[in-house]
Amino acid sequence: MAAQIGHSQKAKPLSPVSVTFLGTSSGGGPILSRNCSSLALDFGNEIWLFDAADGTLMRLHQSSLRIANISRIFITHMHADHTLGLVAIMMTIMSGVGVKPGENEELAKLGKKKKASFHIYGPAGIRKLIRTTLSVTSINLAGVFAIHEILEQGEEPSVDCEEENLHSNEAVGIDFIANDDGVWENILQQGNGKSGKGWSVKAGPIHHRVPSLGYVLEEPIPRVQLDTSSLIPLLKSNAEALASLDPPIKHPLSLLSHLTSLPPPPPYTLPSSDVIHPPPPSGISPRKLVIFGDCSGGTENSTFQKMCENPSLLVHECTNGHIPHDVQRGEKGMKIRKKDLEPSLEAKRDKLFFHKSTDGKKGHPHENGNGHHSFEDILAKDDEKRLEVQKKALSRGHSTPEEVGNFAKTIKARRVIVNHFSAMFPSPRYPSTEPFPSILSPLSPFPYPSPTSTTSNAHSYDPHVEPHPLTKNEIHTRLIMQSLADQITEIWSSPGDDEVQRMAIPSRDFMNVQIPSHELSDIEQDDIRRYREELDRVMGSWKECGGVWVDLPKEIGRIWLGVEPAPSQGAKTAPQEGNHIRFKE
To answer: Where is this region: Disordered (predicted)?
Structure first.
């Protein structure tokens, strides 16, 4: 009987996967604290970009990501704030600085035989945009790229891939046509990618003002490790017989990589009649990522919605949202927000964002928290403004926390990160790129996002740049962004759903999120629990009293940060114990 050998009972560890946000602003940006849309999915030695706004190349240079590892770029839709950085990135990855005269002319003669090492995917128009830009700017490239258009049934590609129309460095791209269900299930089949990562990519339609795509990325089923201690001697003992086969296998140990290739190959019978098998599944759940472009909440396509179910991570836009009065704090809070907005938004900020009272009165009916208006009145006014913001966002093909929360709940997302914020939502200035920094951590010393810790910053010759003390403006910004996330979490992760700690995350430029497993790891849940405990204390104090007590360095001492005066001695206030953070001396 043929023996089945070579299987270890030990599960192969999952490869590192992380997401770095390079641009988190909507098309109303960029602003100082947020670039427009882009994120990087890092597999360790291969990087895929999703969208590439103008300025993405600079964000890549500022980050710790290795630009040379970018092998694919996926575009969600053709709006300028998602595409204008494409060619600049190509110029860096495929720099033609060392190309000799006549070299690209010889490359062009290969015509349709060229093989691409760099790939771009996107809706109709992406091929024309890139080819036209390269042509009119006479950019010199090295290497070969291919542009693949993702088309609906009956839709024509923006330009064809006939030999006479190809750029000298361009290989023939694929025109992916939607199936009868209106989705694209084979953008990348399992087995593509370097080092056996092999993630597959599918796509589906989402609703926006122009055709927009969502991408679903799935990891190959994790498998146990090969038992090389038994396989290597067996393969070496068959070396002579394998070399005499037609075609010959000159290197018997090459069968080890064959067994771990994707998709898994059938069992292989050696000349000795021993049968070697690809490793079986380990029982570990594969990871699945859902990355959406601009949309008015989820997808209207039922087939695509099913494809999105049970993701390890959902990245969804949240362009706008209403901030409840107890977080906004009426006119006083508005003045703080207005002060920190970009000067370019000065003329339109009131018209577009700070809604005037419909009853002719200035500000909110509960502006001072003096009890002159009932709690029911406050809730009614908040609900009125929430619906107003939601109506406007949906009319523009965008989402608010309600749409994100409902979709995340429907597809049972394990993690949720939101991006594409209106320019009216500047980014908090945390000194960390972690997803759950302390809400009371000091202020980054830079007025723009910093990709590294302030203890080893690349922006200064000084090896250590001290953080700045926290300010009331900054804590207000942090709580406003957290309010958006909390509105999503309240819908997505209802109490009693399960025992897992979950929290939606508002993204920031350079924020890096590890996806170590399909389900949240114990470390992730501990981080969320720690963050939530501190946040509840701070948010409670802010909502009740309009501020929070904070312990700053000893030369400053304990101070009150808020839009309202510090509570007097004996006044009702939120518990102060733990409502502060002490800096390292």
So the answer is: 355-374
Q: Which of 531, 377, 523, 368 is nearest to 440 (CA)?
A: 531
Instruction: Kindly report, residue by residue over 239-297, the tens digit of the pLDDT.
Output: 999 999 999 999 999 999 899 888 889 999 999 999 999 999 999 999 999 999 999 99
- 556 burial (CB, 10 Å; 0-12 / 13-18 / 19+) is exposed
On whether the CB atoms of residues 145 and 170 are closer than 8 A, the answer is: yes
CA-to-CA distance for 31 and 319, rounded, in angstroms?
A: 14
Residue 271: inside a domain? yes
Structural domain count of the chain: 1
Residue-range definition of the domain harbouring residue 258 = 240-276
Tracing tokens 């990245």 back to the chain, one arrives at 315
Asked, for residue 81, whether it belongs to a domain, the answer is no
Q: Which of 183, 184, 187 is nearest to 173 (CA)?
A: 187
Of residues 489, 495, 478, 496, the one with CA closest to residue 535: 478
222 and 210 Cβ atoms separated by less than 8 Å? no
Lowest mean pLDDT among 124-133, 186-195, 441-450, 536-545: 186-195
Is 247 contained in some domain?
yes
Give the SS3 label for residue 267: coil
Closest Cα partner for 13 from 170, 324, 222? Answer: 222
Burial 157-180 (b: 16+ CB within 10 A, else e): bbbebeeeebbbbbbbbbbbebee
Answer whether residue 41 is part of any domain: no
- Is 340 one of the annotated active-site residues of the chain? no
Token duo for residue 97: 């600085």
In angstroms, the CA 416 to CA 403 distance is: 13
Q: Cα separation of 543 and 431, whole Å? A: 25
Return the C-alpha torsion angle 383, 389, 394, 400, nearest 10: -80
Please answer whether residues 117 and 107 qualify as being in contact, where contact means their C-beta atoms are separated by less than 8 angstroms. Answer: no
Q: What is the pLDDT of residues 69-117, one digit of tens each?
A: 999 999 999 999 999 999 999 999 999 998 999 999 999 999 999 999 9
CB 341 within 8 A of CB 349: yes
pLDDT at 228 over 60: yes
Torsion, Cα 397 400 406 410, to 10 degrees, reads 50
Examine the pLDDT at 209 and tell me if it is beyond 80: yes
Rounded-to-integer distance, Cα 118 and Cα 413, Å: 31
pTM of the full predicted structure?
Answer: 0.89
Beta strands (DSSP E) in 83-223 are 118-123, 145-151, 175-177, 184-188, 200-206, 212-218
Task: State the catalytic residue, choosing from 42, 51, 54, 81.
Answer: 81
Dihedrals phi, psi of 13, to nearest 5 degrees: -60, 145
Query: Chain-centre distance of CA 192, in angstroms?
Result: 21
Q: What is the side-by-side strand order in the sheet with 275-276?
A: 4-5, 275-276, 268-269
Residues 6 or more apart in contact with residue 437 via CB below 8 angstroms? 430, 431
Strand (E) or helix (H) holding 505: strand 505-506
